[in-house]
Amino acid sequence: MATAIAKKPAKTKSGEMFYSPIFDELGLPSDPANLYRETVGTMLHAAEMMGLPHELQIILAQPKNEIMVHFPVKMDDGKYKLFKGYRVQHNNALGPYKGGLRFHHDTHLDDVKSLAFLMTMKCSLAQLPYGGGKGGIKVDPRKHSRAEMERIVRRFAAAIAHDIGPDYDIPAPDVGSTAQHMAWFADTYCTITEGSGKNGMAVVTGKPVEIGGSLGREKATGQGVIDVLEEMLPEIGLKNGLKNATFSVLGFGNVGSWSGRLAQDRGGKMLTVADHTGAIKNDKGIDAADLAAHVVKAGGVAGYKKADKVTLEQFYKTKVDVLIPAALEQMIGEEQAGWISCKVVAEGANAPTTPAGERILNANGIEVIPAILANSGGVTVSYFEWLQNKSAEAWDLEKVDTLLNKHMVRAAGVTRLARKKHNCNLRTAAYIAALERLKGAYEVRGIFP
Ligand code: NAD
Q1: I need a surface site. Which of 13, 106, 154, 449 has the fewest CB within 10 A?
Q2: Quick check: CB of 300 below 6 Å from ligand 1?
Q3: Listed residue (295, 371, 302) closest to 332, CA to CA
Q4: How far is the CA of 157 from the centre of ligand 1 (A)?
Q5: Which residue in 8, 134, 269, 281 is the catalytic one?
Q6: Separation between Cα atoms, residue 429 and residue 362, nearest integer Å
Q7: Which residues contact 177 (CB under 8 A, 6 or more apart)?
Q8: 3-state DSSP call for residue 273?
Q9: Residue with CA closest to ligand 1 atom 7
Q10: Helices 109-125 and 426-445, interaxial angle, to 10°?
């Protein structure tokens, strides 16, 4: 690990970790803290290290299509409200666009672009036959009744129905969206495309099992995080993997709660958890399954009786072996990175660590397992769901779990090899491995015309 940390990029004059002339060539946002500039910058840093041709760097630094829609929906009180929806299709050189739908009141185009870009990298690293996409609606699902959410999801599906498809662009759940939302989305798409001969149900993954969802999809992202941790912890200094390891979780939704429950099943002890409602801590351990049940009822970790309420700063400062960020982007900046005391950060969330935060973590000897590796279990089981839909099969859970583990171990292995070859940190290595596969595809496909 020591060599990887020594190779950290130095800060440039603009205060960011890496500057590429491509930022200006493509007119990317000039703010060094802009999420899109940060995420693309990380890729361009890796691209430069491996000598990726300029034409591929500029192609990958922008999405192919950015779709924005506005649509009216009738609220329960009879009034209409206008919503904004997005679908960004970043790249499809390796296969159909693939990526989730975020339902969050603070969703912006740059966030969706960043997440779509990360999906291209993730699917490439995971050796899936997919490109990258992402979408969402600017909406707070907690503020709408079930009936309103159904109308919002269906109206959004109708608005983008002609821009997606089971062999073209396949959405899935992300923050704020659920299997039920995917069911309404798929049903709307099937209604609109009825008679077209398309297998409409395969247009989204993360569906309920009753309509072709895969067993194991709900826990897949958390399970992938745990599979990668078990694979990599011994070389990070935890010989027994998660057994007797302490850990903390930031965000206790789908990814966070499943990561917590599965880490606990492997013998780990969860000391502290934070989400949008607050932070809690218990040095004797917090039962992850019990907390997950509380969160379902209470809407967040606040009010959980078997742990003490703490500040966010105390959450970050709690000494643990493993920290699993599983909430939103940019939650580990310079300040939080300085507080963190752990051996490894396993990114369950997408882009939770800023480049400046990562520099501090690395300098403090903390390894970061990047999101494109750590959280690729979700899209991997989405791929299994899509395969099952296309072949009209239903796999048992054992098959899903076994194949998922194989994919995660392979992605970890490819990342490890790239790190050895380029003597860099794990994030740069994962990007290099992803870029190598994309480069190979472009070499044989060529660039039209
Ligand atoms: P979710 O909606 O189920 O949970 C989100 C969690 O984040 C909640 O616990 C919420 O309280 C917490 N949160 C929101 N704002 C917060 C704040 N300001 N401070 C602290 N916590 C906050 O979403 P999810 O599906 O678990 O996704 C979490 C992350 O994982 C996202 O980055 C998402 O893109 C990524 N991800 C999800 C999947 C998946 O399969 N669901 C797959 C890959 C990556």
Answers
A1: 449
A2: yes
A3: 371
A4: 22
A5: 134
A6: 14
A7: 100, 101, 102, 103, 136, 141
A8: strand
A9: 327
A10: 80
- Tokens representing 211 are 């309509």
Ligand 1 atom at minimum distance from 379 CA: 42
Q: Decide: 174 in ligand 1 pocket, CB within 6 A.
A: yes
Closest CA to 112 of 382, 333, 350, 379: 350
Asked if 198 is an active-site residue, the reply is: no
Write the single-letter amino acid at 115: L
Cα 439 versus chain centre, distance: 23
DSSP-based three-state secondary structure for 20 = coil
Rounded to two decimals, what is the model's pTM?
0.95
Provide the sign of the torsion angle of the four alpha carbons 209, 257, 384, 42, taken in this order.
positive
The neighbour count for residue 407, using CB atoms within 10 Å, is 21
Summarize pLDDT for 211-234 with one digit per residue, the tens.
Answer: 999 999 999 999 999 999 999 999
From residue 440, alpha-carbon distances to 52, 94, 280, 423, 444 in Å are 11, 10, 47, 22, 7
Task: Give 163-210 pLDDT, tens digit per residue.
Answer: 999 999 999 999 999 999 999 999 999 999 998 888 899 999 999 999
CA dist 388 and 244 (Å) reads 37
**CA 302 to CA 318: how far, in whole Å?**
18
Write the residue with the smallest CA distance to atom 15 of ligand 1: 276
CB-CB contact of 388 with 207 (8 Å) = no
Give the three-state DSSP class for 443.
helix
